[in-house]
Specification:
The protein starts with a helix and ends in a 9-residue tail after the last strand. 19% of the residues lie in helices and 37% in strands. It is built from two helices and seven strands, in the order H-E-E-E-H-E-E-E-E. Strands 1, 2, 3, 4, 5, 6 and 7 form a seven-stranded mixed β-sheet that branches. It is elongated, with a radius of gyration of 15 Å. By secondary structure, it is α+β, with helices and mostly antiparallel strands. It has one domain: STM4215-like (2-Layer Sandwich), CATH 3.30.2000.10.
């Protein structure tokens, strides 16, 4: 899963703490628990239909960054994540995910407050990967 590879990449680069079984840390795949206050949800949200003629797939991933009640906390972290990811190319992410390119749709934007009045920001990342299938060949 692209979101798991991304969570592990951010952990490896010191931009968060990913615990695969979601019993701790601050990077979460698909879900966003109520604690800790400062946390990041990483979830795949689809992407364009893959072209059957070449071994590439574009996936869209959302990063929802929650902070405390100070908007700078979530805003600064969202910007740091965006800066680390936007424009990456030619990488192999954890789990053997071959990334051709990763580009943000737009810079992080303020989403609002959650039910506990914590500030949230979000941005979407388009990630093009090399994915061989029986019908699309390899690299």
């Amino acid at each position: 899963m692209i979101q798991t590879a991304l969570a592990q990449l951010l952990d490896d680069e010191g931009l968060g703490d990913y615990v695969p079984d979601a019993t701790g840390g601050d990077l979460f795949v698909d879900m966003l628990p109520d604690a800790p206050d400062q946390a990041v949800q990483i979830r795949a949200i689809g992407g364009p239909s893959p072209d059957g003629s070449h071994p590439y797939t574009t996936r869209r991933v959302q990063l929802l960054v929650r902070g405390d009640r100070d908007p700078r906390t979530a805003g600064n972290r969202a910007h740091a994540l965006w800066s680390a990811l936007h424009g990456r190319a030619g990488d192999t992410w954890p789990g053997g995910v071959h990334v051709v390119g990763a580009f943000a749709v737009a810079p992080p934007a303020f989403v609002g407050l959650d039910q506990s009045r914590r500030v949230t920001y979000s941005f979407h990342l388009m990630v093009e990967t090399q994915d061989a299938t029986d019908q699309r060949g390899g690299w």
